[in-house]
Amino acid sequence: MFSGTTSRLGLRGNRRKQLGNKSSAGKQGRNKGKSRKRQKTAARWIKGGEKALLLGGLLAALLFLVLFFRPPTAPPPPRPPIPAPIPVPPVKINIFCVIIDDLGHNRAAAAPFLELDQPVALAFLPMRPHSRELAREAHETGKTVLLHLPMEPVGYPTVDPGKGAILVSFLPDEIERTITNDLEEFPFAAGINNHMGSKATSGERTMLAVLNVIKKKGLFFIDSRTSADTVAYKLAKGMKMSTGERDVFLDNERTPEDIDIQAGKLLDRAEERGWAIGIGHPYPETADALRRLAEEARRRGIRWGTVEEVLARADSGN
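The structure corresponding to this sequence follows.
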């Protein structure tokens, strides 16, 4: 009984053992299969990494060659030159100036001209009672000051030019000494114009001596044209001096109507030639007319300038 039972039990035990052995063998087989798969996967990763590294190296080498071993590129074509702007010539405005002569005798006569806003130039006679002080006031208000140089007229000595005059009998050193003494009153004088002088300005010898002194002192010269026979302006131009000549006397006739007519001629001359020089005298009628002249010049677009500005235009030939 027991032996049969034992025998059966033994058989069962053997079967379990066999089953267990089979199960163990199956597990081992499966484990081996997984291990092989992992090995294959790892091998694939290694090969993939090697390929990636190789590809990266090739790309890096290619980039190096592209960056550092590029053939020189041709320079870009030059840009077409930018055309220079066409210069626009400046618009030249017609210009004129006015000189008031014979100042120095009377303060009251000079006052209206000192008060003018316009750049009127004031010419003072030497050795007159108020010349020095009035000239200083004119200079301090920014007006151009001239020495109104007395010169010998036709009819001398009956017609007397006054103190400090240049006579045709003077030698060059006397002329220089006289002009130098006259200018001591007006150290800020910018130029000289002649007072009377119808005889002196017609003589080449006298005028050459006068102009040599004026040029040496660096002053301009205005020929007042008191004679149709004057050679003063022509000689001064030939000496390359800063020079001009009177175009219009404003007040040979002192009525307002006559002065306005002459002022109109001055503006006409400025329009014709580009510049003009007018001369007047210290009359009340002239002072009033200059205010009207300023308005008319503005209306016609003509500028009232300084003597220096007008001479610069004249010297330029425009």
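The longest helix spans residues 2-68.
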